[in-house]
Write a structure and sequence with these properties.
Elements lengths: L14 H25 L19 H23 L2 H4 L2 H5 L3 H27 L15 H34 L27 H15 L3 H24 L16 H4 L1 H27 L15 H8 L1 H17 L6 H30 L4 H5 L5 H27 L12
């Protein structure tokens, strides 16, 4: 009997061929994150495919840009980023199959598209001084629009920078699978800076969430948002002044370099400064909880100018920076520099009092009147808030007066110190 012909079965792809193809995909993903990091490296390198339109000069374009940012661009970026934390986990990325790697490449394409729109909006806002010399035909509306645009620009630049850092993080995470030199693309003119900080996808997603939260706020809500974010800095400043009263454990009490920690007058000034820190933090916390959390109409700020808005918005930062200057001067308060240091500290306190005086005027005459209706049903009515502010300001002035008296002791010669 003749032997029947045997048809050999089709041979499957060899494992090393499959692995080679998958590693090529991983290398392309690695290279894609590098390209994204370079493309969005700095404002000067942005080349968005979408047209750059001066949205700050056209109200309809402005509203359309804000709407698209809130409803499409930023939410889509978060949706694209969230899976990366798991997909790029080294162990999972190393064993990912073809469809999973294709999904990551699709995510990269989506990130590029949404980032392109994000930077096109940011590039559309011209950097400018908010308060130049005002012309005779000064237009309050244009100045307010310029202020809003600069605020938006600052809020967009933060997630753009964080996303760029995330691209670098992903680039480093997938570094094991970089393409060999023969396959790699030609070197770019702007290589990745090796020491660039990296950010995880989870942190970049949080940055976008904060930008979305800010965009959803009213003008009053935006002030509250900035004040809330700065409140924690008062605790950091307080801790700095505490080091002037209690020596750090690493520094022995007889260390000559730390003698200023033990000086009675500096310790007294540090104690008073902590009282000032607590009072200033109390003021900002009270305004956040009783004034800036109330709803108001868009017309509520029609009479307030952009300079006042910026002063209100940056108030906690201005105060903590001033307190930081006082701390730095107290560190130098020894020897023949006492008189110069005292003058500098007194100047800082004078600036702080002037700032709070301005803030209280803005709140009393610009913020509270439009909120009268809302405050009538609020646990802290209008008159109560004004009374609280007046009482607080009196306490603040009393403490700063005591501080001024105490600081003059720095320039009073001690019995054991030579005159002049």
């Amino acid at each position: 009997m003749s032997e029947s012909a045997v048809i050999p079965p089709s041979s499957p792809s060899k494992p090393n061929q499959v692995d080679g193809k998958l590693n090529l995909q991983r290398g392309l993903i690695h290279q894609g994150f590098r390209d994204l990091a370079i493309k969005y490296q700095t404002r000067g390198t942005w080349r968005p495919a979408q047209p750059i339109i001066c949205i700050d000069s056209d109200q309809d374009l402005w509203n359309a840009a804000l709407s698209r940012l809130q409803s499409v661009t930023l939410p889509s970026l978060r949706q694209l980023i969230d899976p990366l934390q798991t997909l790029l986990n080294p162990s999972q990325f190393r064993t990912a199959d073809g469809p999973t790697l294709e999904h990551i490449i699709e995510i990269q394409t989506g990130l590029d598209e949404k980032m392109d729109h994000l930077v096109s909006v940011a590039a559309s806002i011209r950097r400018q001084s908010l308060f130049p010399v005002l012309p005779p035909d000064y237009d309050r509306g244009k100045e307010l629009k310029a202020f809003s645009c600069q605020q938006l620009l600052s809020k967009l630049e933060s997630p753009i920078q964080d996303l760029r850092s995330m691209f670098y993080h992903c680039f480093r995470t997938t570094n094991e699978f970089r393409l060999p030199p023969a396959t790699d693309a030609p070197p770019t003119r702007m290589p990745i800076i090796r020491r660039r900080p990296s950010l995880s996808p989870e942190s970049a997603s949080e940055s976008i969430a904060l930008a979305l939260k800010w965009l959803a706020c009213s003008e009053l809500g935006k002030i509250r948002y900035n004040w809330e974010n700065e409140l924690s800095n008062f605790g950091s400043i307080r801790d700095l002044f505490l080091t002037l009263i209690i020596p750090t454990p690493q520094e022995p009490k007889n260390n000559q370099f730390g003698v200023h920690f033990l000086r009675e007058d500096v310790s007294r000034l540090a104690e008073l400064a902590i009282t000032v820190v607590r009072l200033t933090r109390l003021f900002h916390r009270k305004m956040v909880s009783c004034v800036f959390n109330l709803k108001t109409s868009p017309q509520a700020f029609s009479e307030i100018g952009p300079q006042q808005l910026q002063t209100l918005t940056n108030s906690p930062q201005v105060i903590t920076e001033t307190l930081g200057e006082i701390y730095e001067n107290l560190l130098l308060a020894e020897g023949n520099a006492l008189e110069r240091i005292s003058e500098s500290i007194l100047r800082s306190f004078s600036n702080m009092k002037h700032h709070f005086h301005s803030i209280i005027i803005f709140i009393t005459f610009y913020v509270l009147p439009p909120l009268n209706h809302s405050l009538s049903d609020h646990p802290a009515p209008h008159n109560h808030i004004l009374t609280w502010i007046a009482t607080w300001y009196q306490l603040f002035c009393n403490v700063t007066h005591r501080y001024s008296q105490a600081i003059y002791s720095l320039t009073t010669p001690r019995p054991d110190e030579p005159l002049g």
